[in-house]
Design a protein that fits this description.
The protein is of the alpha+beta class. The chain contains six helices and ten strands; from the N terminus they run E-E-H-E-E-E-H-E-E-E-E-E-H-H-H-H. Strands 1, 5, 6, 7, 8, 9 and 10 form a seven-stranded mixed sheet that branches. Helix 2 (about 80-95) crosses helix 4 (about 175-190).
């Protein structure tokens, strides 16, 4: 990403995880060992992180976005940044015919008061962001039925695939590969930045990321 003040100020990482349950700061260290073992027995990993929020799932069919931004370069505070992430997802959903919104007091992006299509959890240190959001594209909802997503009883996760079919857009391309350019475009518009492939901007940074992931 080319921000308004630096030649290379930020990186937007988009990926799919293998099945993994992650817990955030609000509930970190509180999950019983037996429950963590149960989740691992489902064929997933269990990892505790420094992001905000509680337990959620990441896995195949889900587009996970990790923006690494220097908020000062974008003249943003943490609350405005989080709002920008939510607006990014809302706009991306709208572009495939799915109506979604942010609900005050309930982080993430919702398609009804009970159904969340994207989870959001961030961490900011010295104005630099980490973590981000996870958009359920074609995710198998069986994984979410094993937990209380984000600690919100009575609410559940839903996929774009299900929503598109329900709202009469069953032929919309909503898999992860199709949603990448849609999300990138929405992110660029919301944050007013030029998003380009990292291999074009900084091959060295791309190599470093690949080395960290090996």
């Amino acid at each position: 990403i080319q921000g308004p003040r630096r030649t290379l100020s930020d990186v937007l990482i988009l990926l799919q995880h293998p099945p993994v349950y992650t817990n955030g700061r609000r509930n970190r260290g509180r999950l019983a060992d037996a429950e963590a073992a149960r989740l691992r027995g489902l064929g997933s990993e269990y990892v505790e992180t420094d992001r905000g929020g509680e337990i959620t799932f990441h896995g195949p069919g889900q587009l996970v976005a990790y923006p690494c931004l220097h908020l000062k370069d974008h003249f943003l505070g943490a609350k405005c940044y989080v709002s920008g992430l939510e607006r990014t997802v809302v706009e991306a959903c709208a572009r495939v015919g799915v109506a979604a919104e942010a609900i005050p007091g309930f982080p993430g992006v919702w398609t009804s008061p009970r159904e969340k299509v994207a989870a959001l959890g961030t961490h900011v240190k010295r104005y630099v962001t980490s973590h981000g959001f996870a958009l359920n594209c074609t995710t198998d909802m069986k994984w979410f039925r094993e937990i209380v997503p984000c600690g919100l009883d009575g609410r559940t996760a839903v996929s774009l695939q299900t929503l598109a079919a329900r709202q009469g857009h069953g032929d919309a391309a909503v898999d992860v590969e199709a949603m990448v350019p849609t999300v990138v475009g929405s992110f660029a518009r919301v944050f007013g930045c030029d998003v380009r492939p990292l291999e074009e901007v900084s091959p060295a940074t791309l190599r470093a990321i690949h080395e960290l992931c090996e």
